[in-house]
Amino acid sequence: MVCPEITESEDGDDGRKAVMQYAETLRAEVFPDLRVAFVHGKLKAKEKEAVMSAFAGGETDILVSTTVIEVGVDVPNGTVMVVENAERFGLSQLHQLRGRVGRGVHKSYCILISDSKNEDTRQRLRVMTQTADGFKIAEEDLRLRGPGDFFGLRQHGLPGLRVADLGCDAALLKEAQTAADALLAQDVDLVRRGGPGFRAVSPERRRAELRRLVILSKAQGKICPIFSSC
Questions:
Q1: pLDDT for 118-166, tens place per residue?
Q2: Do 51 and 37 touch, CB atoms closer than 8 A?
Q3: Is the pTM of this model over 0.70?
Q4: Considering only Cβ atoms within 10 Å of each terminal Cβ, which end of the chain, N or C, has fewer?
Q5: Burial class of residue 48, CB neighbours in 10 A (0-12, 13-18, 19+)
């Protein structure tokens, strides 16, 4: 079970499911006979490892989580994933989450739940039922949400369409993704040089930031060092 928040907001009226409260509700009211655990990014590394090991070993029946399980989790017996408030996540993120189930021999399901009546939102989520191609999903997400929302970095100042029609430039997106991954793989000292803020974020967030910088450099006609012989 995936929720967008760790704890409920103070007003509690925005409808977003939170891991802590959701896990307690499942444990006490919905599945009292099953073993329910939770995991989120604020837990210490050893705590997260213990929870995930118990889940992978069959000691836990239901795991409630944030997107901390988005990458690097391999539980072949995980067969059903339910994503609450699915409209709160990008399609690429949902695609990554969906990849956490169906890794074994059993038939698996990923269920996206949303109360949104917005047609654009519903159209965006419908893409997940039409393809399992990660690049096509990323391309559609970019087209529908815009570059700032796609990278989750609108507050960082990525303009809408002032520098390029990113929604139509799939080749640029692919080039940026490849370049960012290559840079992180080749320059092992990059994370240290990036400063405390860069080190503190997740690897996927680092890739998103690098992709954003690559696109801005290309779109503005600048020469990005990622594309040089180095």
A1: 998 898 899 999 988 887 887 777 777 655 444 444 433 344 434 444 4
A2: yes
A3: no
A4: C
A5: middle
